[in-house]
Amino acid sequence: MSISTFRPFRLLAAALALTVAAAGCSRAGGSDDTQAASSDKGPATELRLGYFPNVTHAAALVGLGKGLFAKDLGNTKLVPTKFNAGPEEVGALLGGSLDAGFIGSGPAINAYAKSNGEAVRLIAGATSGGAQLVVKPSITKPADLVGKTVVTPQLGNTQDVALKKWLAGQNLTGKVKVTNLENAQTLDAFKKGDVDAAWLPEPWSSRLVLDAGAKVLLDEASLWPDGKFPTTVLIVRTQFLQEHPETVKALLTGLVDAIDFSATNTAEAKTVVNDQLKAATGKSLKPAVIDRAFQHIQITADPIASTFPQLAKDQVTAGIAKQAPAVAGFADLGPLNEVLAKAGKPAVDAAGLDSK
Fold first, then answer.
1. Angle 35-39-42 (CA atoms, 0-180°, nearest 5)?
2. pLDDT, tens digit, for every residue of 327-355?
3. Is pLDDT above 60 for 14?
4. Confidence band (pLDDT; 50, 70, 90) for 281?
5. Contact of 125 with 302, CB cutoff 8 Å
6. Strand order in the sheet with 230-237
7. pLDDT tens, 167-225?
8. pTM: predicted TM-score of the whole model, two decimal places
9. Could you tell me the end-to-end alpha-carbon distance of the chain, in angstroms, rounded to an integer?
């Protein structure tokens, strides 16, 4: 009914308006805690968690293999789901069939942008580094790629954007054939001579080098300040974060535990990751491959938030987007920093990515 028509309801409407304003101010107004408390439904019955069978997802694989996520989640059932590339996982997150996911930075940005900044939040990092452009030995410089076929895991995924941005910087856009294959298929195609180069995450770049005779033309770390860039991050559905904040903190506690384990028990962490890869793909890695892969990654909870504005711009340079996706407001690192503080560790910097 219309309040303007029924005068007795005007005072009630005004009171309700004040209540809503107090409970649901914008994040700039500082009353998010009240809003979060009002939507908190307690621990979730289950947590559906996405990950990839890649060494760049080592934190996820260790957390799963050592039971660290399950331990910290307590009575919340953990439902892990394997994906092969980011865009596929984005579809699951936006479709509501996944609650949280370890994912590349590019698809993470796309998930945020596609939902107009509503559906997902960046809550932690997982891995920095671990991506290389590997080529046939006959290719010694960027110009040698003209007319050649270069592979990335999937259209619009993190490595696809990185390759296309680099090609643009080398004035090679349109002069190189870029195609997309699943990582295992890329290895087979490279061995057969069907592809000339590939921009891949670990362990696949190491596999092409050690198992297929490829060589490194470029390590992506050389393109970033201090060699640091987010290869894998952790995002969560915004609704899940609002309704089950303690479950999200439990997941983050498991992540920090997995990172600590990997740092202090590196040899065992490699074994755990290899066992998880075998369970997920049916094959384990040679010790030399996993050793090389671990040399090129840094397992860290820091999502390196300061890089995200540039990563968004890179999508335009790469021809993936017409304009840079908005990333303001993407990060919510409050829960992670609570977990880190409890563990006596320094906070990570949102670099302004937590406000619009």
1. 130
2. 999 999 999 999 999 999 999 999 999 99
3. no
4. confident
5. yes
6. 77-82, 46-51, 100-103, 230-237, 120-129, 297-299
7. 999 999 999 999 999 998 999 999 999 999 999 999 999 999 999 999 999 999 999 99
8. 0.86
9. 35
Q: What are the tokens at 285?
A: 């890695």
Residue type, 10: R
What is the 3-class SS of the chain, one letter each residue?
A: CCCCCCHHHHHHHHHHHHHHHHHCCCHHHCCHHHHHHHHCCCCCCEEEEEECCCHHHHHHHHHHHCCHHHHHHCCCEEEEEECCCHHHHHHHHHCCCCCEEEECHHHHHHHHHHCCCCCEEEEEEEEEECEEEEECCCCCCHHHHCCCEEEECCCCCHHHHHHHHHHHHCCCCCCCEEEECCHHHHHHHHHHCCCCEEEEECCHHHHHHHHHCCEEEEEHHHHCHHHCCEEEEEEEEHHHHHHCHHHHHHHHHHHHHHHHHHHHCHHHHHHHHHHHHHHHHCCCCCHHHHHHHHHCEEECCCCCHHHHHHHHHHHHHCCCCCCCCCCCCCECCHHHHHHHHHCCCCCCCCCCCCCC
Q: Which residue has the tokens 């992540």?
A: 255
Length of the chain, please? Answer: 356
Residue appearing with tokens 């990751």: 273
